[in-house]
Design goal:
Length: about 375
């Protein structure tokens, strides 16, 4: 398993290198320069000269790329704030890993070991300050690292909320459709899933804004949801419960607009996977033994039917940032997706490259995680 993970990570690094080359070249060929807007202000000449020297903008394209790559992977700040916490986390993870490997059942061993190390890594990084030299925005917005990670929290809040809604509704819906195959409910769910798949997300977002925010308030006089922003201007003056309510009023519509497409996909995948399992030989044997229908479905069918969904969800997590680009623009959500659109329009390539590479790194890592989880959940899968 370790050799497989190492090999996949090496392939992932090659993929990321190729991705960075392609995106950098496309930005160079997009027309216009990153400093064109700054040149309109005569007082910005010192800043232009500084950025030109820093990024080698007067050099050939390949030299500019090498300069960007060197800066991108160079840490500008690294400090361990609490050495004791790091040592305790490593010791605890090692002890937990040994105990789990020795005493737990084989089919839970891998997941438990992974969980122990995830906790350890979280503790470690919660006590580590790290910052890379991603440069400054060409449009004067500040340091790229701070700019991106200052908005990443808002994007993750939106993306994981949408993922939670999609899983909460999509998986039970797919299971019930499989159990009631070809029923009216199954046909209705299939039709709704195809409509959700085929409807562009900007139409979904605008439709939700019109119906549940503008028209609902017009018809009832009650402000149920907001059409833009993440919080109200008076958010800091509200009580705790008022802040939660205000956050939900801003969050629900953009999260639902993202979740609808994922929900449709999860329900269709879960239905197909569940149908395949329900017609398998070992499930017929379980039924013939006289086991309760609920036990057959939950204990025997559902566990195996969830394996493809786990892989799908793992990959979807990596697309959270990219998938929120249009939605954040429509709803004025102050996240990375909205920043990405602005950076493309102004040819702010340090910001664009930083966001693209974050998405690429997420996809590579979550691909490896998906493969590992697949092997953990299905003992038949081996990576030797």
């Amino acid at each position: 398993m370790l050799a497989y993970i190492t090999r996949r990570l090496v392939y992932g690094l090659v993929t990321l290198l190729a991705l960075s080359m392609i995106v950098f070249m496309l930005l160079q060929l997009s027309g216009g320069g990153p400093l064109d807007r700054l040149r309109l202000n005569p007082r910005m000449q010192p800043v232009i000269a500084q950025l030109t020297e820093l990024w080698g903008l007067d050099q050939p394209i390949w030299r500019q790329y090498v300069t960007w790559l060197k800066n991108y992977v160079t840490p500008s700040e690294f400090a361990i704030n609490n050495h004791a916490a790091v040592l305790i986390a490593i010791a605890a993870a090692s002890a937990a890993t040994y105990a789990i490997a020795r005493y737990m059942k084989s089919h839970w061993k891998g997941a438990a070991i992974l969980g122990a190390w995830v906790v350890a890594i979280f503790v470690i990084f919660s006590n580590v300050t790290i910052k890379f030299n991603w440069g400054v925005s060409f449009q004067g917005a500040g340091d790229v690292w701070d700019l991106v990670f200052g908005r990443l929290g808002a994007t993750l809040r939106l993306g994981f909320s949408a993922l939670f809604i999609a899983l909460l509704i999509g998986i039970p819906l797919g299971i019930y459709q499989a159990i009631r195959q070809y029923s009216f409910f199954d046909q209705l769910g299939t039709t709704a899933a195809f409509i959700a798949f085929s409807t562009p997300i900007f139409i979904v977002g605008v439709g939700l804004q019109l119906i549940f925010a503008l028209y609902f308030e017009k018809w009832t006089g009650v402000k149920l949801f907001y059409v833009a922003g993440m919080n109200s201007p008076s958010f800091s003056e509200m009580t705790f419960w008022q802040q939660i309510g205000d956050t939900l009023q801003h969050l629900v519509l953009p999260a639902v607009s993202i979740a609808l497409i994922s929900l449709a996909g999860y329900s269709r995948f879960q239905r197909a996977s569940m149908l395949e399992v329900l017609h398998s030989d070992y499930l017929r044997t379980a039924k013939a033994k006289g086991l309760r229908r609920s036990k057959v479905i939950v204990k025997h069918a559902l566990r195996n039917a969830l394996i493809p969904i786990v892989t799908l969800v793992s990959l979807d997590i990596a697309f959270i940032i990219g998938g929120a680009i249009i939605t954040e623009t429509i709803f004025g959500w102050p996240g990375v997706g909205r920043l990405y659109i602005t950076a493309i329009g102004t040819v702010d390539y340090p910001v664009v490259m930083a966001i693209v590479m974050i998405i690429g790194i997420g996809i590579v890592v979550m691909n490896v995680v998906a493969d590992v989880l697949y092997g953990v959940m299905d003992p038949r899968v081996r990576y030797d």
